[in-house]
Amino acid sequence: MATFPQSLSLSASHTWAAGVVIAGLVTWYLASNTNEAKARRAGAVLGPGPKRALLVGNLFNFPKGRWYEAFTQWAHEYGDLVYIDVAGLPMVILNSLEAIHELTDKRMNIHSNRPNPTLVCDIMGYSFFLPFLQPDKDFTEQRRLFQKAIGPRVVHEYDSFVQQGCSELLQRLDGFSGEPLKALVKTVGDVLTRMAYGEYFFVHHGQEAIQKNVQGLELLSSASAKLWLVDVIPALRYIPAWFPGATFKRVGNQGRIYADAIRYWSFDQVKAALSAGITDESITSKYLDEGGISESTVRDAMSAMYGAGVDTTTSTLAHFLFCITLYPNWQKRIQGEMDRVLGRGNTPTIDDIPKLTMLNAFVRETLRWLPVAPLGLPHPSLLHTYSPIPGFVLRDPRIWGKDSEDFNPNRFLPEHNPSVDELPDVWSIPFGFGRRICPGRHLAQRTLLFYAAAMLSSYEVLPYEEEHLMPNWPFEDAVIRSVSVRLQSLSLTPVETCISLPLHIQATCMK
Ligand code: HEM
């Protein structure tokens, strides 16, 4: 049975997104407090929203958790633009694709900022990290590097890394018992690390680098989950660490050690290897060698690969397994199509993926029905924090029809839906909007489709005996959602092991 390091916790890798969202709320809370008054003076009508109390606005009826559920409820009650105001601090929740495009695409110049909390960005030093970067020169350069390296026209150049990860995943699932999330995290994390820094680095330093990322991201997560006085009064950052009550200083100093490790350590190892004449394929070595993009841009952009890519991709794969278990007739249809198109017993290659229309439809429906980041990330501007809510848009009956709440991959098949070409792109909406749209989405698309196809070509995934799976499975309350699945995959012996909570899946090898 394969085992995986316990320290690779998924929640740790959720960190940057949680950080950005929480920091967004904090920044929004701390930002200008004069907008409502200004609007009133200007005779402007503020959007509808939950009842606001005098002076404190929505301070007491703003949800403490389960934001996605609360925002969805507000969307049903108040419509496409929901205005909330906590003690004079404004936020607009965007629930329609039209409104989101209007603000984040057409007016991307003013709606592409990120929150900038003092503890995380200044003291811990994460202001270099792309998810936190303000749209300045460094931001443009890092995005340019991602576009050059893994943009739509070139992402296939890294197929060998994705393929290697796939073989490793299939091996891990063979004879593996237990929670597949860790196997998925390990696989995706290794692929991203190899792509960023190369095989030589991976062999010698890969696990240490991942460990440093996990540690740093864990602290970033816990620090981001609290409101710190220093975020309210930034000048406090200058008090010494020994000062009574200066916990933020100690957290911040430790955080900086981790942030520096994420930023410099792996990059420095690759540079040292390059100086010693050791080269192999990676994004870092390619762009250091080519020039044209500054060394610091390559270094900083690559430091976000693991943290930004691992949890999102892994959780989407877990959602895929969840849906395949929930809808076994679709598993049969997809496997039947694979047998017809590829020949029974053949594992697909990446180039086969476009031929698998059922699989494509199923994965698209998974992304639509269960996006891993249904709240997206906030896009603050100078006046308001705009929060586009992809999760609401992806189930909007005006777009998807009366069955928008149902899981129905047929909506993506032209023989069942002649208007399929009019549907919005689900390889875009769950990945964000405007200038901040996920730069890793093309890599994610390739990886997700290929791994999903490979898993179904090798294993049959079944709900365990009398397990009653529900479409409205309760998700943990997190910025990046993930269903927790357990999977039993036996290749040589028949499946007979009971798998424990919360969701039991058995997968039998079909070869
Ligand atoms: C299924 C997989 C993925 C999903 C659902 C996803 C989703 C997202 C979302 C919603 C955002 C925020 C966009 C916004 O603010 O409007 C984002 C940003 C980002 N993603 Fe992804 N992502 C995925 C995979 C990846 C991968 C594989 C990478 C790395 C190669 C990556 C790198 C990033 C980075 C660096 C950002 C920050 C961009 C910025 O702030 O400008 N993501 N992603």
From TrEMBL:
Transmembrane segments: 12-31
Cofactors demanded by this protein: heme
GO MF, any single term: monooxygenase activity
Residues involved in heme binding: C438
Keyword terms, alphabetized: Heme, Iron, Membrane, Metal-binding, Monooxygenase, Oxidoreductase, Transmembrane, Transmembrane helix
InterPro entries linked: Cyt_P450, Cyt_P450_CS, Cyt_P450_E_grp-I, Cyt_P450_sf, Cytochrome_P450_fung
Family: Belongs to the cytochrome P450 family.
The protein's name in its UniProt record: Cytochrome P450
Native species: Serendipita indica (strain DSM 11827) (Root endophyte fungus)
Lineage of the species this protein comes from: Eukaryota, Fungi, Dikarya, Basidiomycota, Agaricomycotina
